Amino acid sequence: MHTDAQVRLILVDGSGFIFRAFHALPPMTSPDGTPVNAVFGFTNMLARLLREHAGTHLAVIFDAGRHTFRNDLYDQYKAHRPEPPEDLRPQFALVRDATAAFSVPAIEEAGWEADDLIAAYARKATDAGGTCTIISSDKDLMQLVRPGVQMMDPIKQKPIGEAEVRAKFGVAPAQVIDVQALIGDPVDNVPGVPGIGPKTAATLMEEYGSLDAILDAAAGMKASKRRDNLIAHADMARLSRQLVTLREDAPCPVPLSDLACCDVDQARLGPWLEEMGFRSLMQRIGLPATGTAAKRRAPTAPAPAAVSGEPVTAPLAAPDAPYGEYETVTDADTLRAWVAEAQAAGVCAVDTETDGLDPLRAGLVGISLATRPGRACYIPLAHEGDLMDSASITQMDVAVVLECLSGLLVDPSVLKVFQNAKFDLEVLVRAGAPQPTPIDDTMLISYAQFAGKHTQGMDELSRLYLDHTPIPYDEVTGTGRNRIPFARVDIARATTYAAEDADVTLRLWQVLRPLLRPNKALALYEELERPLVEILADMERVGIAVDANDLRAMSVEFAGRMATIEARIHTLAGREFNVGSPKQLGEILFDEMGLAGGKRMKSGAWGTDSSVLQDLADKGHDLPAEVLAWRQLAKLKSTYADALVNQVDPETGRVHTSFQMAVTTTGRLSSNDPNLQNIPVRTEEGGRIRRAFIAPAGHVLLSADYSQIELRLLAHVADIPALKEAFALGQDIHARTASEVFNIPIEGMDPLTRRRAKAINFGIIYGISAFGLGRQLGIPPGEARGYIDAYFARYPGIRDYMERTRDEARANGYVVTPFGRRCWVPEINGRNAARRNYAERQAINAPLQGGAADIIKRAMVRIPHEMREAGLDGRMLLQVHDELLFEVRHEEADRLAALVKQVMESAATLSVPLVVETGTGTNWADAH
What we know:
Blueprint: E1 8-13, H1 14-24, H2 37-52, E2 57-61, H3 69-73, H4 89-101, E3 106-107, H5 114-127, E4 131-135, E5 149-153, E6 158-160, H6 162-169, H7 176-183, H8 198-208, H9 211-217, H10 225-232, H11 234-244, H12 266-276, H13 279-284, H14 305-308, E7 327-328, H15 332-345, E8 347-354, E9 364-372, E10 375-380, H16 398-410, E11 415-418, H17 421-431, E12 439-441, H18 442-450, H19 458-465, H20 473-477, H21 491-512, H22 522-542, E13 544-546, H23 548-573, H24 582-592, H25 610-618, H26 622-646, E14 654-655, E15 658-660, E16 670-672, H27 684-690, E17 693-694, E18 699-706, H28 709-717, H29 721-729, H30 733-742, H31 751-765, H32 770-777, H33 781-794, H34 796-812, E19 814-816, E20 822-824, H35 833-870, E21 875-880, E22 883-889, H36 893-905, E23 916-921, H37 924-927
Parallel strand pairs: 1-2, 1-4, 2-3, 4-5, 7-10, 8-11, 11-12
Antiparallel strand pairs: 5-6, 8-9, 9-10, 13-14, 13-17, 15-16, 18-22, 18-23, 19-20, 21-22
């Protein structure tokens, strides 16, 4: 489980990276003529690491010298390694200077290799219950990969886990040492066994399991040169194992606690970067020129900017640079110049303008770019009509524009910043652009820190953090009947509006991105929110098939049932009236029938919302109960049976919902067009609707649902031994609760008693009142209060949790999920008692609902990768609260079910087990 206290250690293999950077980058020199290509590569890597990779602790590990304990074991160890190239030698010290300039600990120890120190620190991190990421692609470090320890290729920016190790060596990470001992290493002069290569070593390991078992069995092997070599060189194989084994008992000269990440000292970093001539990097990370090296020449590099990092010649604009001086781009040469400028800057904001709000149907009208505050452009693509400002403006063909932009969109050295990236990515990809990468999303950066505190729209963020009000959309398109499509906005006005969006997005990124680490939201953003952008976009593009004929039949069926209920309502009322009219219903209930409890609204009409009708129904009145049933069917008919038929995409034959990533306070996803979150789960009607969601021929739908996840989180965070024990034993949690609270045996328990315990269990999560529980169970509030009191008497830890959480919310304005997500509760100290009480219930529930959201998001991030590794071509279609829905070929359903269950149940480590229930069927109802 991730908490603020858990160690997430990042270790950079500094020595290994120096050589890779030196050979990967063209020659470069600093203003004083010193070679700096390896330093430049290392510095860029470190800056990117600090910006993009979440960690609580960080260190760069170096080799202290060439002689180590391995040379004492074997004097030929690394004896044939050549001296470093002449241009690389002066860069070793400069790389250490770079590490210090970024305020990152640099660690080395005489007599030990960097790899040994990495092994020792990784062990310390995992022994402390944390994780470790090793920034290196060195095969020698792959033996360290295990749960809690992974590697990351610093050049390709790809993780290296067990699957990658198996692909490299043909064995699991735990067997890498024995494989290396068999094959040796000519670069390090590790002898190994002659004649045995990687494939042979992997085959032997698969058959015998270990080096010792192979050597013990050698004498009994079939006569061969391989058998003879294994016997003759057994001692060398054992020595080789000593040489390649990384020592987890190596000294750790700096305590782990001293590696905690800290803010970069910009007063120290800026002058050092300028001294090196790395002005492009200064601009990228927002550091102004200091003037200390103003008269020195810049680094020289024969390669283009995208490869060598050639610095930008234009100065970085101040954060208060003026808005509005933007350029309209209408030819390829100008666009290529903007692309080069963006590549030199290393970061640019990108925004799209469309003719609709559905990214899967909207047409691309234009694209805007921003390379620094105040420096932005707009590329019109599909403006039309007599409202264009000038007939002389020629818009470029979309294909030409995307060809010019494609290199920028996929350039790994340039960060593309979006506001609501999922929308723009879907629009761009549909238009023919490659998938942009790497990306940042200012909406999600803000959401990861301030969910519930304010909305995450660009206009709101701009007012809050930039003190700037962007041009309203209504101002350029008009309103009401006078509104025109954006494609008919004249290009000059469109440029001012659209380019400002990109400009604002970039400025927001500069303000909000640095707050992630001090607000303890970096891991949440990097590990959950940002990776989900592409995953959810894929889910939206895939959609889900529906049976339109079944929906039409369902509409007729619901209409018939509504007519039957309506007839009963008219009989109970004594006359016919419009059941859908709140005004007429109020007159029937309170004027004609004289029911008590009615309240008039400001308009003078009687209030007849669902809470009023439910109160009347709870008091035994039949007519309001029937109206509630009628309304439920009417809503399901209009929202699903009728609307879904119209929402089927004619091109795909499927329904494509849109997942909202930054709406809820707790981190939960929501969906709209259509909203699939509100289909009743346990009612006959809900099941009927789910039957219309189908799998295509030869496929099934697979549902994977967390069982009672919020109750499990309650048992965990409130530390309730009885509940934890019940979950650990797999007991019926509601029966166990009833037994504990009402002091009766589980065996032979009355179902009504269990139902009451279930109502309390789930009600407690939402801060239920005695009145609410009483209404739910059909008992007086006083009796319900007795049940709640008995519950808290048996589980005082839950009351303590609730009080503690309310106090935390009052003090901080937010509560925190078990995984570090802040859920803001603005009304917690408000003057309005009703709102304040609601905020208190929100505060109690948010860590549980938010924790559940964090867990399923963790699973969603991992599942696509695990499916690819397993060779499964199933597709994740939907996420509805605690459930994931997949489409998979019938013959692969069992394998996918097992994989999804394993990933979801291991998504977090709690003090109670996570349990996932799976099911398959040709439709959603049968799978659920």
